[in-house]
Amino acid sequence: MRISLRRPVTVLTGALTASVLGLTAAVVSEVAAPSTAYASSVGGAISRAEILNRAEWWIDTYGAIYSQDQADAKASVTGEKYRPDCSGFVSMAWRLPKDGGWDRNTRNLTSYGDTAGVSLDDLKPGDAILDSVDGHVALFHKWTDSSKTNMWVYEEYSTGDAGRHVVKSKSAYADSGYRGISYDEVVGSTGSASVYGTMSDGRLTYTRIDTETGRRSHGAVVSTAKLGFTPKAMATLNFNTVLVTSTAGQLYRVDVITNNDSLRFETPVHLGGGWTHDLLTYDGSGHLYGIADGTLRRYTIGAAKPNASHITGNTMIDTGFALRTLTSTGPDWLLGTTSAGELLSYRIRGAGDWSRYELRSSTWQTMDNLIAPGGGAFYGHRADGGSVHAYLDTLPDNGSGADLTGTGTVDASGWTQTLLSAQPRTAQ
Ligand SMILES: [Ca+2]
């Protein structure tokens, strides 16, 4: 690879020109301010959703800029500049550090001890496909279908062409000696969020979100049937069982028949009264939590499809849980928001025995529902605009928000549900 180092143009013809140049430079450096969707650091942990967002932004922003000259580097969405060729593009998507001012090339992309080989069949979004002999690398986006015959990739390919998002054949890659590589700093959950919801008229909804990419992968499918009562709080127990309370304080079990092309459920099974909870969540490990008037209670669920006798161990944990939203991030770990804007994590051990951690002190008052499928992934729903936002708490059980990042918007609108609840532990 030939690199010519160009001297910067520094023709100063007077104070006015200098100030104009300075202004221009400042504007260029503000190509895109970092936002919560771009929360990684150079060389640091990065989610698959962020890698794809970085690649998409570059392809959407630039035209035919391909160059193997490091001096032609272009700004990424977070401002750092990367060489606009195939390996510079992957370095940009992964937000790799420079080595002596140089981006990596196809010969040394895997020489820094921070990548691992992966078979083409096991590629995940944000991995790369590398031919270090003939010198090309592309960024894997997704398979076109479950047969894994063809894949979407992002790439900078050749001089005179714009970067592109194209379909490639796996067998053609394999025949040409390409191999898959993954970046060790990639963090995030794998799996999906299985999300049930209620509409204000009592219909039920089902939606799936791919937690790797932060994108909706199924639905929403909406039932024709209505629950027959006004839902107040809900907790998903497993893939086809949801507990829902009514505004009249009654608890119902909803058994789902199908959530594939349509959503159908059996007539809700009435389990009893006195369920005045404002919020409910299930931790995926036998404990149902509910908050009524700021009092947190824990129950033990003894069956996949519980009747009243399977809901035991009513334990008052404590008062003072004035939360606006509630979900569970793991066994006996709760996550919630307050109307004052806090994002709070709780570890519950028993009656009067719990710990509270403030992950964020402000701005979360806009959330109307929180849902957490496990693996540190969670989503915030804003009913006002119907948007759903993705977050990743890399270690959800360390009582710290330092490892918490926003990973993008799943949908900017369209989620008109009143309640949302994700099946626990469907992501790792
Ligand atoms: Ca954490």
Task: Please compute the radius of gyration using only Cα atoms.
Answer: 25 Å
Shape label:
elongated
CATH topology of the largest domain: Neuraminidase
The CATH architecture of the largest domain comes to 6 Propeller
Task: Note the beta-strand portion.
Answer: 35-45%
Number of structural domains: 2
Structural class: mainly beta
Largest sheet: 6 strands, antiparallel
The helical percent reads: 10-25%
Give me a quick take on this structure.
The protein is mostly beta strands and 428 residues long. It has 2 domains: 35-186, Alpha-Beta Complex (endopeptidase fold (from Nostoc punctiforme)), CATH 3.90.1720.10; 192-422, Neuraminidase. It is built from 4 helices and 31 strands.
Structure write-up:
Keywords: Signal. This protein is mainly beta and 428 residues long. It has 2 domains: 152 residues, endopeptidase fold (from Nostoc punctiforme) (Alpha-Beta Complex), CATH 3.90.1720.10; 231 residues, TolB, C-terminal domain (Neuraminidase, 6 Propeller), CATH 2.120.10. Helix content is 10%, strand content 42%. The strands form 8 sheets. A 6-stranded antiparallel beta sheet has the order 4-9-5-6-7-8. Strands 14, 15, 16, 17 and 18 form a 5-stranded antiparallel beta sheet that branches. A hairpin with a 2-residue loop joins β27 and β28. α2 crosses α3. The protein is elongated, with a radius of gyration of 25 Å. The two termini are 41 Å apart.
